[in-house]
């Protein structure tokens, strides 16, 4: 099975994070990974010091994805930690529960204010999921 | 419409004004008006900003054409440089029309120092400023942390509380802050605990992105009478420009209310072409709550710039006091103005909620909400150029009331993505170039420097020229940077 992936696309003012994954949990985990890579130079170098239970509610996949990224952005700002790894992720109708792992980076690269709904669509194409979310930086 | 791209082709109706008629798309409720020269319109058409402006024109309750300023560029939902006025109280308010950085804005301080007074002391001055004003992601202030009732009072009372209770800044600053630094109707109870947690220790911090603190000198004066009213006395005078906003507190307020309005707008029968335009009627429970929370976040931003200004005065005194005496800390607030905010303003007897996202209020000489000193002169407007390029001081004109909903541009406006700028510009070389032009830069890595390179922005001279020629705001003075602290 093909692995999940992400890339950053050009946007005049902000950053567009494009995600591909075999299933929805992998798509959400990939979003966390992409966010961490945007925030710091080397996401692999983040120490494992903080394990966090996260819960998000939303009326559809798009609202859950925005809520999920906003949740990580909030914890990064108040705890000073970045969370590139997802240890467990459970998705059910209108709710996401996950355990994320991370720690303090050596330095921050980009400050991310929030995730946006702009042009956001979580789509199933040929049995795989894809989404593009614009982040306000 | 362009036959191949499907993108709108605005019609030029005056040398600096372009229009997209209401019938361009069936869901538009009003037309769209863009202020630009032919060259700037060419740049604007390269991204999706016109399409985004058309999307804004579909919001319920719009009372006038939606406006695009000459520095307009693609945002999310609203374009940056977009203005929209809805009827109060039955029109909508859209948190995306203000943006995440609520009351991002600029404050200009004028000194009684000359370029010669400071040029030999710039390095220690910049070093002292970087020590006194934290920059970067999430960086809080250890000395000035607000929480609980203390933070709630600050959110509701704004800058006057800082002056009168904490002795921060001067009573004389208050008239020279938009809305005197306190937006009426702010309610701390409508700001979530998360927002308060995120921003409570960030008062007096610059943050990241394109925020900056710049020491400058007056390079040219275009209108001596208005400049004199603003306290800008002559070429060579040192000024300080502070550009930042409401930090994590404001970001979280926007996050909370976009989510809330996205969840309920269908209950009000509202459909939007882009979910980031989520909105609710101003007189709805959600609309009222957002307006009160946004006003509280705006007060926090005024307070943030006020604390930074206070620390700038202290740093000037500390470094320059022994050289120039009492003049060192004599940095007067010329004005403090928001460029991401919604305000209730009166047009032809009707109260409208004017959303300005990446746009500055530009009240003309006849406006009532101006300090006595600026009555008959116009409201000061500050247009920072990109890093290391000149900034402009303008004065709002009465014609802006009808032409542009008393709004003007807010900066040079990005023309290139951050990634493209990094590919094209070498940060190290840019730093050397800036140094060769006598501009010191602090607080930015070479990559961060490249992202904010002048090439990544529109030409601020052209942007300012449009609003000057359109009669929205008049050029007063040009400022040149000598030291930049990047957020």
Description:
- The complex is a heterodimer of chains A (137) and B (487).
- Chain A is α+β, with helices and mostly antiparallel strands and 137 residues long.
- Chain A has one domain (5-136): 3-Layer(bab) Sandwich (Archease, Possible Chaperone, Chain: A, domain 1).
- Chain A is built from 2 helices and 8 strands; from the N terminus they run E-E-H-E-H-E-E-E-E-E.
- The radius of gyration of chain A is 14 Å and the shape is globular.
- By secondary structure, chain B is of the alpha+beta class.
- Chain B has a single domain, classed as tRNA-splicing ligase RtcB (Alpha-Beta Complex), CATH 3.90.1860.10.
- In chain B, strands 7, 8, 9, 11, 15, 16, 18 and 19 form an 8-stranded mixed sheet that branches.
- In chain B, strand 4 (66-76) and strand 5 form a beta hairpin.
- In chain B, helix 4 packs antiparallel against helix 10, helix 7 (193-199) packs antiparallel against helix 9 (247-264) and helix 9 runs antiparallel to helix 10.
- The two termini of chain B are 40 Å apart.
- The interface between A and B is large, with 34 and 42 residues.
Please write out the topology.
The complex is a heterodimer of chains A (137) and B (487).
Chain A: E1 5-9, E2 15-21, H1 24-39, E3 50-57, H2 61-79, E4 82-92, E5 95-103, E6 114-115, E7 123-125, E8 128-136
Antiparallel strand pairs in A: 1-2, 2-8, 3-5, 4-5, 6-8, 7-8
Chain B: E1 11-14, E2 17-20, E3 32-35, H1 38-44, H2 49-56, E4 66-76, E5 78-87, E6 92-93, E7 105-114, H3 115-119, H4 122-132, H5 148-157, H6 159-166, H7 193-199, E8 212-221, H8 224-229, E9 237-244, H9 247-264, E10 280-281, H10 285-324, E11 332-338, E12 340-347, E13 350-357, E14 360-361, E15 380-383, E16 391-396, H11 400-404, E17 407-408, H12 418-424, H13 427-436, E18 440-442, H14 446-451, H15 460-470, E19 473-486
